[in-house]
Amino acid sequence: MEDRRGRGRLRAAARALEGDRNAPRHCARGRRHGAGPAVSEASSSAAARRKDPAGDAALIVIAKEPVAGRSKTRLSPPCTPAEAAALAEAALGDTLEAVVATPVARRVLCLDGSPGEWLPEGFELISQRGDGLDERLASAFEDVGGPALLVGMDTPQLTAELLSASLGALTDGADDAVLGEAEDGGYWAVGLRRASRDVFEGVRMSRADTVEAQRARLRELGLRWRELAVLRDVDTFEDAREVAALAPGSRFAAALPGTWTAVS
After folding, report:
1. What strands, in cross-sheet order, belong to the sheet with 148-151?
2. Structural contact between residues 18 and 168, judged by C-beta atoms closer than 8 angstroms
3. Is 24 helix (H, G, I), strand (E, B) or coil?
4. Which of 79, 137, 166, 223 could form a disulfide with 75 if both were Cys (CB 3.0 to 4.6 A apart)?
5. How would you class 50 by CB atoms within 10 Å of its CB: exposed for 0-12, middle for 13-18, buried for 19 or more?
6. In this predicted model, what pLDDT tens digit does every residue of 44-76 receive, in sequence order?
7. 181 forms bridges with which residues in the sheet?
8. For residue 40, what is the DSSP state?
9. Residues whose CB is less than 8 angstroms from the CB of residue 260 and which lie 6 or more positions away in sequence, other chains included
10. Where are the domains of the chain?
């Protein structure tokens, strides 16, 4: 029952996003944003996109190798460093599984560290480049090219349905970017039709106002973007319990000791 409820919320988010993609351009917040008129497209191109929403897009996962003492350090305490790393590996495994189940031309893992047995087949592997997260995001898009949708490893409740809808929002031809807000003020997903370092460099990351700063940058560059579903990502132990409740059948939920999920 819990599994059906949690997955049902994400299916609803994906359906809402699909509806958002088809909404008129004059609709308010939560739909398209930014400057410029709508661009009409040839009906043959539109039909091709409807048949294959992802087109030639790439789906990128940016992640750190799950290592005790380096991964999910904000979960300790109450987790030990080893338990926090196990949760990080489980979250990454759930994310990669959702990506594998998503129809897309390319699947890319942009990794800080070395791959392990947790990496499924079918992924291109690239190394993260840059000092701060802003530079690493810019480099990931630059290395992969566009169009591409990038997600992190902190939302193990992701589903293939939601990822497909997010890719469709990016590749339907009307907007330059998509942005998925996280409840903590960051973002869990960002997509660009064309790579541009200017989108990210200098945007302050890992702050309560990061998503607003990213929106401001898109606006400053004159780009149009689509808002995706708002999700909760895992930074704190309370986040971990809430996300595990959303996806109780996931690796992440299984890695979280059952007694912890009941603590109030």
Report:
1. 32-33, 225-227, 177-181, 187-192, 148-151, 58-64, 106-112, 124-127
2. yes
3. coil
4. 79
5. exposed
6. 333 333 445 567 899 999 999 999 999 899 998
7. 187
8. -
9. 78, 237, 241
10. 2-16+52-261
The CATH class for the domain spanning 2-16+52-261 reads alpha beta
Can you point out the beta strands (E) in the chain? Answer: 32-33, 58-64, 106-112, 124-127, 148-151, 177-181, 187-192, 225-227
Residue 124, strand partner residues? 108
Q: How far apart are CA 101 and CA 3, in angstroms?
A: 18
How far is it, in rounded angstroms, from Cα 62 to Cα 142?
Answer: 13
CA distance 97 to 251: 10
pLDDT at 110 over 50: yes
d(C-alpha 202, C-alpha 133), whole Å:
10
* 3-state secondary structure (DSSP) of residue 106: strand
Q: Which residues pair with 106 in a beta bridge?
A: 58
148-151 and 124-127 strand pairing? unpaired
Residue type for 262, please?
A
What angle do the packed helices 81-100 and 160-171 form, to 10 degrees? Answer: 60
Indicate left, alpha or beta for 92 from its phi (over 0: left) and psi (-120 to 50: alpha). Answer: alpha
Alpha carbons 211 and 204: distance in angstroms, whole number: 9
Q: Does the bond joining 257 to the residue before it have cis omega, within 30 degrees of 0?
A: no
CA atoms within 13 A on the CB side of 12: 9
Mark out the alpha helices in 22-110 (DSSP H runs).
Answer: 43-51, 81-100
Tokens of 53: 């929403």
- At 145-190, the pLDDT tens digits run 989 999 999 999 999 999 999 999 999 878 999 999 999 999 999 9
Amino acid 60 reads I
User: Residues in the chain, how many?
Assistant: 264
